Amino acid sequence: MIKGIKIRLKPNNKQKTKLFESAGVARFAYNWTLNKQIENYKNGGKFISDRELRKEFTKLKQTEENSWLNDYSNNIAKQAVKDACDAYIKFFKGESKYPRFKSRKRSKPSFYVDTDKIQFTGTHIKLEKLTTSRKKNKQKLNWIRLCERERIPYGEGVKYINPRVSFDGLNWWISVGIEYPDNTEMPTNEGIGIDLGIEKLAIVSDGSVYKNINKTKEIKRLEKKKKRLQRKVSKKYEINKIKMKGGEVRYKKTSNIIKLENQLKKLNRRLTNIRHNYLHQVTTEIIKRKPSFIVVEDLNVSGMMKNKHLSKAIQQQRFYEFYRQLQYKSEWNNIEFIVADRFFPSSKTCSQCGSYKKDLKLSDREYTCKSCGCVLDRDYNASLNLKNYGQEIA
């Protein structure tokens, strides 16, 4: 079993410069590879393997013009070449869109770290060749401080998979996969059904109800603050707009605009962290009950987003993230994860007698069965139907 861990780095100013330069090397190698593949395809040539391109890139580093590449880890460029070749292959297989050149302004700065060269301690991480000096005091530049202590296991026998360093616009992060022994314990408790909604995040068939965190005072306060900052940024851009000779309008980005945009980034990051943390708390609590199976409905989120009155509320609930967390945590704990068919009538079916109610409206918050007289909360009734669906399949 492979678990992914992501931790924030705390580099000093010199280390930040080196990290951005390393990301620039990865971007250069990726764009160079993509350009080679495009030119080769136009000339009628066959696909060039990443092995051949790596050899060619090694020769490129020996030229005077590109000698600066030797100051950085060889593995950064090698992996970037491989990534570009993989993206090109995926396009021709129909698995992804046509690969685009990486832009200094728009693309996310990131680079690969070799698994044999990376080193962890309880508080620091060592990256390869951030400095070319062999002096002891300069070698300290290779060691970057971690924001969390003892989070990543280290020592003999620990295997690291695909370590990547990335920048999200505010902070630098290290993400790495680590091999753990498989969990052999099999859950034996009763299975559950989960109905997702907007008023409440989740209603579980065992009676548990999880609130919508977006309705809390803290989130509402931060959302108001976000609106005010967005207006400020917009006004600043309008003040600094320049009219060109041909009638074209351009906007000048001043230092005050950059400060406001950084504040906005931090606020967005805080909102995202609060929502993700809440989803982790909810999904972990559900998994800790050790049900034999979990059933969720396959929601048409893209279709629901077309409703302009509900689109923002649906977006803030992060249904996909909830599914993703619940799915991988279920796999780790040997819990069967079932996604009910999209057209399964979980809300319109009576969980007690199985009769179908055609005229159920969205405004009806209670389900009243005409056949057996059962009265239940609409969402709780749906969660019971999902549980019954799982019992038939499992």
Q: Can you describe what's shown?
A:
The longest helix is centred in the last third of the chain and has 34 residues, at 255-288. The chain contains ten helices and 16 strands. The mean pLDDT is 90. A seven-stranded antiparallel β-sheet has the order 2-6-7-1-5-4-3. A five-stranded mixed β-sheet has the order 10-9-8-13-14. A two-stranded antiparallel sheet has the order 11-12. The protein folds into two domains: 2-179, no CATH class; 192-210 and 265-393, Nucleotidyltransferase, domain 5, CATH 3.30.420. α1 packs across α3, α2 runs antiparallel to α3 (74-93) and α5 runs antiparallel to α6. It is globular. The chain has 394 residues and is of the alpha+beta class.
Q: Would you identify the regions where 5 or more consecutive residues have pLDDT less than 50?
A: none
- Give the averaged pLDDT, no decimals: 90
Count of helix runs: 10
Structural class, judged by helices and strands? alpha+beta
Query: How would the global form be characterised?
Result: globular
Distance between the termini: 24 Å
What percentage of residues falls in helices of 4 or more residues? 40-55%
Strand order of the largest sheet: 2-6-7-1-5-4-3
User: The biggest beta sheet, please?
Assistant: 7 strands, antiparallel
Multimerization state: single chain
- Radius of gyration based on Cα positions: 26 Å
Total beta-strand segments: 16
Structural domains: how many:
2
- Helix-strand pattern: EHHHEEEHEEEEEEHEEHEHHHEEEH
Strand content: 15-25%
